[in-house]
Amino acid sequence: MRSEERPADPGEEVRRRAWTIADRLARAGGEEAWLISFEDGYRVELRSTRPAPDVPGVLAALALGDRWGHRRSILPCTGGLVQDTVWSEVRLEPSGGPGPGREGRTSGVGEGSLKGGSSRAGNA
Fold first, then answer.
1. Any bridge partners for residue 88, and if so which?
2. How far apart (Å, rounded) are the C-alpha atoms in residues 121 and 113?
3. For 59, phi and psi rounded to 5 degrees?
4. What is the pTM (predicted TM-score) of this model?
5. For bias kind Gly residues, which ranges apply (predicted)?
6. How much is the pLDDT for 108?
7. Which CATH number does the domain 3-93 belong to among 1.10.132, 3.10.28, 3.30.1490, 3.40.1000?
8. How far apart are CA 86 and CA 70, in angstroms?
9. Pairing state between β 110-114 and 33-38
10. Dihedral (CA of 65, 67, 72, 78) sign
11. What is the edge-to-edge ordering of all strands in the sheet holding 82-91?
């Protein structure tokens, strides 16, 4: 990115990175990607009960964040259906560098979601 293309607002750069990750996760994962805002950044999550069609693409998208991780849970009232969630965070001030770490706070209000690779905000 050339210097004249860089936003002057660091928050805008973080937001742009988060939407890029969300777009790539939605395309590679074949599912809806969620963008969740919190105090100093964003978390992008991809939740699925089936394997992603493009696993290397999902991993490449996750690696664009400052931190990333995975969790597995059994959905209630589904007879044991397992949901995998992968997540990537971008922050104004990255804490501890890239890589997995304990999950950060995600109590902020959701910004929207992406379905099938669309880059428009939506409510789901």
1. 44, 68
2. 6
3. -65, -40
4. 0.69
5. 96-115
6. 35
7. 3.10.28
8. 4
9. antiparallel
10. negative
11. 67-74, 82-91, 41-48, 33-38, 110-114
Q: What is the pLDDT of residues 38-55, one digit of tens each?
A: 999 999 999 999 999 999
For the stretch 42-45, contacts whose Cβ atoms lie closer than 8 Å and that sit 24 or more positions apart, written own/partner, are 42/14, 42/15, 42/18, 42/89, 42/90, 42/111, 43/87, 43/88, 43/89, 43/104, 43/106, 44/18, 44/87, 44/88, 44/89, 44/90, 45/85, 45/86, 45/87
Whole-number Å distance between alpha carbons of 14 and 53: 27
96: which 2 tokens? 């501890």
User: Whose CA is closest to 37, among 53, 56, 18?
Assistant: 18
The Cα 7–Cα 14 span in angstroms is 10
Contacts with 88 (C-beta within 8 Å, 6 or more apart), sequence order: 21, 25, 43, 44, 61, 62, 63, 64, 65, 67, 68
Structural domain boundaries in the chain: 3-93
What backbone phi and psi angles, to 5 degrees, belong to 112? 155, -165
